[in-house]
Structures are given as C-alpha cells and as structure tokens.
Design goal:
The complex is a heterotrimer of chains A (about 300), B (about 290) and C (about 230). With about 300 residues, chain A is an alpha/beta fold. Chain A has eleven helices and 14 strands. In chain A, β9 and β10 form a beta hairpin. The longest helix of chain A has 16 residues. Chain A is elongated. Chain B starts with a helix and ends in a 5-residue tail after the last helix. The chains are: A alpha/beta (about 300), B mainly alpha (about 290), C alpha+beta (about 230). Chains A and B meet through α2, β6 and α3 of A and α1 and α5 of B.
C-alpha cells in the first residue's frame, strides 16, 4: 500500500492562536480516512493546508510522494475537494459550473462526460437550471460532482454532510462507499460527528486543539472486544469495592465522575449484568459503548480524563 | 493562463452586475446628448459667455467632437466608480461567494490566478471604454455632425480643425484606458482585503473621490501633493486637445502643446498599475484563504 | 482795444473760414472715395482668415466673404468656426463712411505703406451714433482708404489696415488687418474642469493687454454678379 498523504510535524498558528500543533499522519492508497474532531479542533485548517489554501507555519506535507510546496499544481491536478459549503457560481447552471471547474482542473471533457457526472449525483435533469434555484442538498451533490469531474486519485471532503437532511446524509455516505469500493479512490473525509465516520471510515484520526489524540484503523477502534461499559449505581463506592473483589477487577478502568467504568468484550455484558444483580448493586444505568465512541464522547463533552486510552 | 482568462471573462460577462455600468453609461450619454440637441445653443452661449465681451464665435460649436469632449469631461469622473464595482469585486466577491477556495485548490498558481483576474478586469474596463467611445464619439458624430472644436481652457481658448481631431480622440481614449486600468488595479488590490465586495468597492470609490477633490481644489497646500496623486494624472487626456502655435499665433496641425506632460502622466499611471498589481500578487501569494 | 478786438474777430473769421473750406474739401474727398466704393454692388470673395488673439489658438481657415449694398456683410468659414471681433465687425469699409451726417476734418498728411495719405477725421453729427470718431487715411490719388481707426461707444477702438492689389479699381483690398482691444479673459473653473493651472506668469502677462488681430487675405473676388439676401441671415 502506497502512502498517498504523508504529513509530518505540521503546525499552523494564526497570531498567538495555535490552530494545528505538530500533527503527523499518513493516508494510504484506498483508505477512507475519517478525520474527526470538534468544531474548531483544527480539521479544516489541516485540510486547507493539504489543499494549499493555507500556508503551514512549519512541517512537511507530501502527497503522491511529492512535497506539496514544490509540486503544487502537479498534485492538485489529482485531487478533488469539497471544502465546507459547496459554494459554486450561483448565476451559472450546474452544467456550466461543472464545465468551468473541469477546465480549471486541466482537462477537456465532453458533454457526455459532464452529464454522466451529473447523472451520478442525480442532477442530470436540472443540469441547465441556475444553481441559485437549488436546495442545499443539490448544491452539495453538485460540489461532489465538481470534485470528481476530473477523475482525481484523491478526494478530500470537508464536512460534506453539513446542513443536509437525513436522506441527504445517507446519499453522501453511499456515494463515498461507492467511490471507495467501486472506483478505488482514496478519500479523506472530515466530520465532527462520529456516527458519520464510523459507518464509512477504514482509518480514523481524532484531533483536538490542533493535536493528534488517536489514529488507528477502524477495525481496531471499533473493536467490540474493547467495549466500554459505564455503570451508574445509587452507591458507586460500595459497588466499586464489590467489583474489585470480583472476577471483573482486571476490567476496571479509572472511575469517572458519576460512573464506574469497565472495559470488556461485548459478549461478556450479560454476565456482568447477572453479577451486578447478585451483588445487590442498585444499578441506575448500564451503558455499553465501543471504545472510539466513548473516546469521542469524552472529548466532546469537554471531559479530558481520557489518558486511560492513549496507550 | 489563456484558459483561465477565458474563464474569468466568462464569469464577468455572465453576471448581471457587469451590465449595470454599460446601462448607466448609455443612460448618461443619451441624456446629455438629448439635452444638447434640444438646448445646445444655450449651452454654447454659456460656454463662450466670457469671450463674448470682445469676440463673437460663429459656427457649429455644438458638434459631435465637442459633445464628445463634454461627455468625456463628465464621465471620466464617474466611470471609475463603475469600474470599481467590478474590479473591487474580483477577489472579494469570490471570497464572499465561497468560490475562491475552490478556485485556489485548482492546479493554477496564485500568480497566474491574480494576473488572469487582473487582465479580465482590464478587458472589462477597455470594453466599457469602447462602448463609451461608440456612444460618446461615434453616436455624437452621427447626431451632431463634425466640425472644428472650440475649447475653453483656463487661460485661453483653442480651436482645432475638424480634420485634426479624430486622432486626438484615439489618443485620448487610449490614455483613458490607461487611467481607468489604474482605477481597476487599485480596486483589484483593495479587493483582497475583505470577504465581501462592499468594503473594497466603497474603499476604492472613496479613494478616487477623495483624491479627485484634492486634485480639483486649488489650495496651495494641496497643490504640493497634487503631482503625487494619480487622479491628477488621470485627466491628462485633455492634453491631446491643446495645440502648438507658430510665431504668428497660428495653430500647427497635428501638434500637442505639452506632449511631455502627457508622457509623464502616462508613465506615472503605468507605474501605479505595476505597483498595484505586484502588490496584489505579493499579498495574495502569502494569503491564507479562510473564507 | 477796438482795433485789437477787430483783429481777433478777423482772425477768428479767417480761421473759421479756412477751417470750413478745408472741411468741405475733405467731405468731397470722402464723397469721391464713397463714389468709387459704390461701383461695387455686391461681391463674393474667397480668402484666408487668421485670428490672432493672444488667448485664442486658432488655425488659419478658408473663408468666403459676402457683401451687398448698402451694408450687408458676412464672413463664412468653410465648415468651421470663425472667431471675429464683437458685432461681427464689418471688416468692410463702406460701413465706415456709410454715415450721411458727418463732419470730415483734415488732420494732416501721413505716409502709409509707402503711399502719401490724407488724414481725415470723421465726426458723426448724430447723437445716437455708435461710432464716436473715425480716422481715415486716404490715398488721394487712387481714392483708396489705406487705414481706418474707429472708436465706438460699446466695443472700443478698432484699427483697420487695407492692402490693395489687383482689385484696387473696385476699392477692394487683397488683405485686411483688423486690430482690436481684447478685455481680460478668465474662465470659471467649473466649466472647464481643468484641474491644474500651470501657465507661467510671463506667458499670462504676455497675453494680457495684447491687441487682437483678424487678418483676411483675399485670393479672388466675384464682383457684381448678384447675391441672394438669404446668405446674410
């Protein structure tokens, strides 16, 4: 597997604000690379640096094995991108927009090719209508058609589902899966929503405050043998003592504010349930989550007791 | 580069806003022409009022060439505002629409991008002036006919022979192109510093209005800075309409009274254009696109 | 005392008589000149006109000059603008002596352009006359006016010089130089929209007070072939 994107020690500061801090990661060919983080975590800044919209303060970016700073045009020819809102020229039709950006990407494309692209995103019928008459979802699909029109090897989608209804979100998700599976594209997709990423990503990077928190393959991060269970009882202290004396003592994790935490295989949960009943524990709730979800919720809830997971 | 320029021109001429300037110029010119057609004699009397103490000027003072001169005097003060409308929007407008970031992720260098946009703005400016020439010069020639031109300067009057005028207009429009491209370059430069087009448009207009006022007022302290304002040099096209005289005070056909001034002003305007465009490239290359 | 008085009376009488007889003499000269001028009923002349006014830059232009008795006169420029002294001032001489009620006084002799001339002062007797005084320099032998200076109430003083050639028999000059005073001239800036005022002081001084001149050089005359009155409108 060939590395498509190699980022080393990338930093960017705006004045005194450190938007991206010493970030390194690698995206390999064929990956659907999920880029997770809260709003303001530095996702967009990083993506904009990959697309030369923003100049890094320091660090190195190589794409297709070439340094981005010196091979900008060569690299960008093979990238298609949707950055945040899919803004296009509203006074032009979808077809005209697509043609315009296709030409800018350095290719000459015939009418049929352009119409096929619009067909793929379901806009063929409205191809000649001005974009200002389009809904948000249609604009988003046009944005994706523009990103794909020059048949790029790498596709970068920054928050592609922002502002879309559930059907729109599902459409985009299916499109990403098709691109990956049928057309073997390498895709980087960012989001602040875990649910979006976990259904499509083969690899996930989570950043917060410009720093890398975790990077791993989806199979690792969504591994069910690593399920996290939060238990809240009326008397957490007593229950904790009982658990420390039980077979579950090796599964115990550092305690959180309102809950006890255990890490175990999902299949073991019914047994845990039974044991808690046997202990006479006054259980209020028992919530199983896979590790990535737990991790992500820890960040997004502002709780920083996450050291247990950074191994 | 050629593709990019074509695309930029395509974008300019597919926008309704682009045609505002053409419509505005058409309206202004036809109104002035109508007014002069109806009341031209009065206007001629008004213009020559000071002379009529001792002299009588006979002939078709209000002819096509003269009307064009009046129109240029009036319009070349206002056309910059119309040019600012497009030029100051070139980058800020795209930033506002959000299309700038998509453009910048295409395999085009930023220098090329800026130059293509600037050339497109310049072509728009030139087309606007060609339209101005068609209406102000050719239409006036058609409506009013041609004749000698009798012009009042600050301290003297000049009469230029019919056959000696057309080339002067060719020169004057050429010079006007230079002056208006300077305005476009200024608007274009300011266009980078905002993510909406109103700011740069208003800023460009303000600079032009402010400088023009300074250029117009004859206050000694302003006179010191006048040579440094590009607006002072923008009106140098009028130099085409002053003629040298021989020892007998006869005008010499095909001459310009003060060609040095014309060349000097042209060079200053070209220097401004180069300055604004290079500054635009410099700033834009370093710019982080956050829109 | 009485003797003295008589002497004075006699002197005055003689003086008066001599003056009168002299004046009558001039009147007849003027009448002769006028009679010669009357040979021409009308003419169309072609020539070149040059306007030389310090503050006007004008080209030399071809003109057509039309005249018809008694006093119709028009200068037309071929497709152009002509700048003439106020009042279209008849750059023609018949208007100079067209007056009927005048006193013509001799004011001596002078040499103009190599020919001897009589200086004649014409005083209009009519109170309402626009002309206050006209001084003519008349070439007696050829009955030609060589020079005329006219002072008017409204439009200042004009000076005309006439140069004769092949049309001298008709009293028509080959060249007329018409000089007049120009008042100071300054345009209000609002009209001209000229921003800079960069004329040097000495150029401005030079322009001040300089006399204006209109010079017409005739190349041909068509005499007494009749002209339609509409031309003068």
């Amino acid at each position: 597997m060939q590395p498509i994107i190699q980022v080393k020690s990338l930093s960017k500061s705006f004045g005194t604000f450190q938007a991206v801090n010493n970030l390194s990661f690698t995206v390999n060919e064929g990956d659907v690379y999920g880029f997770l983080g809260q709003n303001g975590a530095g996702k967009s800044t990083t993506i904009r640096m990959l697309l030369t919209l923003i100049k890094p303060t320091s660090g190195e970016i190589k794409i297709f094995g070439l340094p981005l700073s010196s091979h900008r045009n060569e690299i960008l020819k093979n990238i298609g991108a949707v950055i945040e809102k899919p803004d296009v020229y509203k006074y032009l039709s979808a077809y005209d927009n697509l043609k315009l950006f296709a030409r800018l990407s350095g290719g000459k494309f015939d009418y049929q090719h352009l119409m096929n692209q619009l067909e793929m995103v379901g806009l063929a019928e409205r191809a000649k209508d001005k974009v200002k008459t389009y809904s948000q979802g249609m604009k988003q699909r046009l944005g994706i058609a523009i990103a794909l029109v020059h048949n790029p090897k790498l596709i970068i989608l920054d928050e592609p589902t922002n502002g879309l209804d559930p059907q729109g979100i599902a459409d985009i998700r299916n499109l990403i899966l098709r691109l990956s599976r049928e057309m073997n594209k390498t895709i980087v997709v960012s989001s602040h929503l875990l649910t979006e990423i976990e259904q499509i990503a083969t690899k996930v990077l989570i950043i917060d405050k410009g720093k890398k928190l975790i990077e791993g393959s989806a199979s690792e991060l969504f591994d069910e043998s690593q399920t996290i269970v939060e238990i809240e009882t009326l008397d957490n202290d007593t229950t904790l003592k009982q658990l420390q004396q039980s077979n579950w003592k090796n599964n115990l994790q550092p305690k959180r504010e309102h809950a006890l935490v255990l890490k175990l295989d999902r299949k073991e949960i019914p047994q845990l349930h039974k044991d808690l009943v046997a202990m006479n524990a006054a259980v209020i709730s028992l919530q199983p989550k896979h590790s990535l979800e737990d991790y992500f919720l820890q960040i997004t809830s502002g709780n920083q007791h996450v050291d247990a997971f950074t191994n | 580069m050629w593709t990019l320029l074509q695309i930029e021109l395509y974008k300019i001429f597919r926008r309704p806003r682009t045609y505002i300037a053409f419509v505005a110029i058409t309206a202004l010119i036809t109104i002035v022409q109508l007014g002069l057609k109806v009341d031209g004699k009065e206007y001629a009397a008004f213009v020559t009022a000071d002379l009529s103490n001792s002299l009588q000027v006979d002939g078709k003072i209000i002819n096509g060439y003269f009307v064009c001169y009046i129109l240029l005097q009036l319009l070349l003060v206002h056309v910059p505002l119309l040019i600012a409308l497009i030029a100051a929007d070139m980058i800020s407008g795209e930033a506002n629409m959000g299309t700038l970031r998509l453009m910048i992720t295409k395999p085009i260098s930023r220098t090329e991008f800026i130059l293509a946009k600037f050339f497109a703005a310049s072509i728009y400016t030139i087309l606007l002036l060609i339209w101005l020439a068609i209406l102000a010069l050719f239409l006036s020639m058609l409506i009013f006919g041609t004749d000698d031109m009798f012009l009042m300067k600050n301290n003297y009057a000049v009469q230029i022979e019919n056959a000696d005028i057309f080339w002067r207009y060719a020169g004057a429009f050429g010079f006007a192109c230079l002056a208006m491209i300077t305005v476009a370059a200024l608007g274009f430069f300011l266009s980078q510093f905002a993510e909406n087009s109103i700011g740069p448009i208003v800023a460009t207009m303000s600079v032009i209005i402010f400088f023009t006022i300074l250029s117009t007022m004859s206050i000694p302290i302003f006179n010191l800075i006048k040579p440094y304002l590009f607006t002072t040099h923008m009106v140098a096209w009028k130099e085409f309409f002053d003629v040298k005289v021989n020892a007998d005070n006869e005008t010499i056909k095909g001459t310009i009274q003060n060609p040095g001034k014309l060349i000097n002003s042209s060079l200053i305007l070209v220097a401004h254009i180069i300055l604004f465009v290079s500054a635009s490239i410099y700033v834009f290359k370093k710019k982080d696109v956050l829109s | 005392m009485v003797k003295q008085l008589r002497k004075i009376t006699l002197f005055l009488f003689i003086f008066h008589f001599s003056l009168l007889s002299h004046a009558q003499d001039m009147t007849s000269l003027v009448q002769k000149v006028k009679a010669k001028l009357d040979l021409v009923n009308d003419y169309v002349a072609e020539g070149k006109m040059k306007t030389d006014v310090a503050f006007i830059k004008a080209p030399v232009g071809k003109v057509k000059v039309f005249f018809k008795k008694p006093n119709q006169f028009k200068i037309k420029r071929d497709n152009g603008i002509s700048i003439l002294p106020k009042g279209g001032v008849s750059v023609n001489m018949s208007s100079l002596i067209e007056m009927n009620n005048y006193v013509a006084l001799s004011a001596g002799d002078a040499v103009i352009d190599g020919s001897k001339t009589k200086i004649v002062k014409l005083l209009p007797m009519n109170e309402g006359s626009e002309i206050i005084l006209t001084t003519l320099y008349i070439d007696e032998s050829n009955l030609l006016i060589k020079k005329a200076i006219t002072t008017t109430k409204e439009n200042g003083t004009y000076e005309m010089e006439f140069f004769y050639g092949q049309y001298a028999n008709y009293s028509l000059p080959d060249k007329v130089i018409f000089a007049f005073n120009t008042k100071d001239y300054k345009m209000p800036k609002g009209i001209t929209l000229e921003f800079d005022d960069d004329m040097s002081k000495d150029v401005k001084e030079k322009m001040k007070g300089k006399k204006g001149k209109v010079e017409i050089t005739y190349t041909s005359y068509i005499i007494n072939k009749g002209i339609d009155n509409s031309i003068f409108k």
